[in-house]
Amino acid sequence: MLTCYDTLLRIELAAVRAWPAAESAGLAGWLWRYSGGGSQRANSVSPIAFSGSDVEAAISEAEQRYRRRGAAPMFQISNVTQPADLDARLQARGYRLKEPCACLAKAIAEAPMPTGVEIADKVTDAWLDVYLAGITPSRRPQAPAILRRVPAPCAFLLLQRDGQPASVALAVAADGVVVAECVATRLEHRRAGASERVMRALEAWGAANGAQVAALQAVTANAPAQALYAKLDYRRVGGYHYRVLDS
User: Fold this and answer.
1) Which three-class secondary structure state does DSSP give residue 219?
2) Domains of the chain by range and CATH?
3) Contact yes or no for 34/71 (Cβ under 8 A)
């Protein structure tokens, strides 16, 4: 079942793997991440497993690591966060909630690859042009470096329209899951089925690379994205948010 703990854990681990930070370190079983710039995932602690004996001490160590780099301490809290009361602990320490997101997933099987979608195992300039146009300026400087670190097997999918790059997505496969990242379509090509075709290609590539589940993480407030994924039969199986300490 897509909502079982094991599947949620595999999805979260695959998502962590799909967006590698410039710096990372183990911290009592957690993964501390830092990259600079505006990427929240690449600048937050991923607390999927905890092997320490003192949660508060581990939080304090994470805070010190971020402050040494002039960054606000931040944690990514999900359905598989350990320990389970970490969110409450962070709130009690003054962390504010930031950007709730939904974890969406569907079962996939082998299917024909849609025509017209180019697949590369490395990021290309054309792919990057589409993706960078759709993200905030604070995320643009670090994004190319993160994308160059994405581990194999991965696929940078690009749909061209009238000879121009129109829509992109990044697929990263791990442990029976293909994670969809960086889904973006140029403004002039939206509402014409471009993102849907790229996502179908992502699912076909994922199934061909051993995935039985396709998953993605989308901002809850992004209504157009939520509508697209609902149309493609993705269903909410979990969620996450960030906790950030401003002072």
Assistant:
1) strand
2) 5-102 (no CATH), 106-239 (3.40.630.30)
3) yes
